[in-house]
Amino acid sequence: MATSRQPGVANRLGYSIGRVIRFFLVDSNSLLRWVKRAVLLVLLTAVAVQFLSWIAGAVLSLISFGLILFVLAKGDLSPMAQVSECMREDEGGYRYGLSGYGYYLNGERIDGDDS
After folding, report:
1. Which residue of 4, 50, 64, 92 has the lowest C-beta tally within 10 Å?
2. What torsion do the CA atoms of 42, 43, 49, 54 make, to the nearest 10 degrees?
3. Measured distance CA(112)–CA(89) in Å, rounded
């Protein structure tokens, strides 16, 4: 028994894509056919660039989060402690300190510049 069904979504989609491809690739005028192909190539390139830039952004975000987690898990903050020790060292002199550049004695800026 033969039954009649309405065409499904896949059938309509396949037919539509086939018609679009036929429009771009088949034409009796060769100049018009190549212009259509060039337009199709430009459109596909634009879509590919947008897609690839999104993928690249997502990958770089994942790499950044991975590096942040790696630094938090394995990072050694002792160089920062050495920098802060250097800024509070006992010897006096002109250097960069916690209050900016100036004359420091025993870790305190004493050059009178309160700005």
Report:
1. 4
2. 170
3. 19
E strands, 2-113, in order: 93-97, 100-105, 108-109
Question: What number of H helices and E strands is found in the chain?
Answer: 3, 3
**Residue 98 CB partners (closer than 8 Å, separation 6+):** 87, 88, 107, 109
| Span 14-44, pLDDT tens digits | 999 999 888 888 888 989 999 999 999 999 9
Reported pTM:
0.45
Residue type, 71: V
**Pair of tokens at residue 70:** 């790696």
Residue type, 37: R
Q: Where in the chain are the domains?
A: 9-75, 78-115
Chain segment 43-101, per-residue pLDDT in tens? 999 999 999 999 999 999 999 999 999 888 887 766 665 655 555 555 667 777 777 78
